[in-house]
Write a structure and sequence with these properties.
337 residues; alpha/beta; eight-stranded parallel barrel; two-stranded antiparallel sheet; 33% helix; globular
Length: 337
């Protein structure tokens, strides 16, 4: 079925039953999982607006089962705004499917005095009752003090009966959902510095950790993912971004030195690489069109990569960064397809 006016009639797009879950073939990458210690049930693939995806195709992603959406209102907004109408339909006041969506937003203004203004912008633009995860964005190596100051606000920002909820209610009006959830349910941070991510990994002030990870940039594996016990109910949720991009270019573009008959990973393979790692809950995608959504879903349904495939992609990523030469790779480690 196609999503129409979600504020006017109920829909079963994400299923009051297990109909949608049943459509996914069983694999060792469960399509839905809990996001760390939060009580949010999320799809393993998330959709952000960095690829300037349309609202129509954003709704299509939801129809196909993706329920984690990432939105920016104060950086690259000219890209993200093309999905805003879809998020208003899915998450706005009156939406009959709001509880089936996980809305993650971000502010890149790392100043405790500014957070209320950032929330006002997001509530106004999307017409929402609450945000599931509010991220502090682009946390770099010089942001330790700023992040510490921002995260001290976590008890005042998240959950029901918070200081910020009462302020939002005065401006936007009281609703049952806002009273129940609070203005912000959980707090996250998007790290561009993995040393800082490691330091904050087990903080009770931080519910979701978002880090760059791909075949060419693998430091998150030992500085974040492998520091966590995937079975620990109190671990933070982990979201990855930049799965397909590197400073040296797009990772689906083949390194010139790779033999022509060697495996050339496609974009869904790169998502599977992140989702094959320990403790990764969501791989965030910046797509442009619905065909990419279909390909990504079909890809993860193939399951995790084998140890041999992961090792090969590690070499592939190192070739991208000119960290090794093709002659340095043992021939038996190459995969031919």
């Amino acid at each position: 079925m196609r999503i129409g006016d979600l504020s006017q009639k109920p829909t079963t797009v994400l299923g009051e039953s297990n109909q949608l879950i049943a459509k996914f073939t069983e694999s060792d990458i469960p399509f839905y999982r809990q996001l760390g210690r939060t009580n949010l049930k999320v799809s393993c693939l998330g959709l952000g607006g960095g690829g300037s995806i349309s609202s129509e195709d954003t709704l299509y992603a939801f129809e196909q089962g993706i329920n984690y959406f990432f939105y920016s209102s104060d950086l690259h907004h000219f890209l993200y705004r093309s999905m805003a109408d879809a998020l208003r339909k899915l998450c706005g006041r009156g939406s009959s499917v709001r509880e089936k969506v996980v809305l993650a937003t971000v502010t890149y203004i790392k100043n405790p005095e500014i957070v209320l203004s950032a929330l006002f912008d997001q509530f106004q633009e999307l017409g929402i009752d609450y945000i599931d995860v509010l991220h502090w964005g682009w946390v770099g190596e010089n942001d330790h003090s700023a992040l510490n100051n921002c995260l001290q606000l976590s008890p005042d920002i998240r959950g029901a009966s918070s200081v910020y909820q009462r302020t939002i209610e005065r401006v936007f009006g009281v609703s049952e959902r806002l009273k129940k959830m609070g203005a912000v349910r959980y707090v996250g941070a998007s790290f561009h510095d993995l040393n800082l991510a490691h330091q904050w990994l087990n903080s009770p002030l931080l519910d979701v950790v978002m880090v760059r990870h791909n075949v060419a940039h693998r430091s998150a594996q030992h500085q974040a993912f492998n520091c966590l016990n995937v079975a620990d109910p109190q671990r933070p949720g982990i979201v990855t971004f930049k799965s397909t991009g590197s400073h040296t270019g797009s990772l689906w573009e083949v390194p010139p030195s790779l033999p022509s008959n060697c495996w050339r990973p496609n974009v869904p393979d790169l998502y599977r690489y992140s989702l094959s790692q320990n403790s990764v809950d969501v791989c965030l995608m910046g797509l442009q069109r619905r065909e990419e959504i279909d390909a990504a879903i079909a890809g993860v349904q193939r399951g995790k990569l084998t140890p041999g495939e992961i090792e090969y992609l590690n070499f592939y990523g190192d070739l991208h960064r000119d960290r090794i030469k093709i002659g340095d790779i043992p021939p038996e480690k190459l995969i031919y397809r």
